[in-house]
């Protein structure tokens, strides 16, 4: 795994931790556990991608204006 991949996943893990902090998993059924795991993976993968795309778009706009 390269350093950017590790940073990307760490950033996603931090965001997932913040967003799911108040979630109580006590008494979850199997389906609820699967939904919870899906939420974690969705946040882990998609949130850093959204942030990266915003930064990339801003970078392109500043390069275009120069």
Description of the structure:
The protein is mostly helical and 66 residues long. Helices cover 80% and strands 0% of the residues. It is built from two helices and no strands. It has helices at residues 3-19, 30-65. Helix 1 crosses helix 2 (30-65). The radius of gyration is 16 Å and the shape is elongated. The model has no long low-confidence stretch (mean pLDDT 84).
What would you call the quaternary organization?
A: single chain
- What share of the residues does DSSP label as strand, in percent? under 5%
- Give the ordered list of helices and strands: HH
Mean pLDDT: 84
Model regions low in confidence, pLDDT < 50 over at least 5 residues = none
Count every helix, treating DSSP H or I runs of 4 or more residues as helices: 2
The profile of the biggest β sheet is:
none
Number of strands: 0
Distance between the termini: 35 Å
General shape: elongated
Helix content: over 70%
Structural class, please?
mainly alpha
What is the CA-atom radius of gyration, in angstroms?
A: 16 Å
């Amino acid at each position: 795994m390269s350093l950017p991949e590790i940073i990307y996943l760490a950033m996603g893990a931090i965001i997932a931790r913040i967003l799911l902090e108040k979630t109580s998993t006590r008494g979850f059924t199997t389906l609820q556990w699967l939904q919870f795991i899906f939420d974690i993976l969705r946040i882990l993968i998609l949130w850093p991608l959204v942030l990266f795309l915003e930064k990339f778009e801003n970078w392109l706009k500043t390069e275009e204006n120069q």
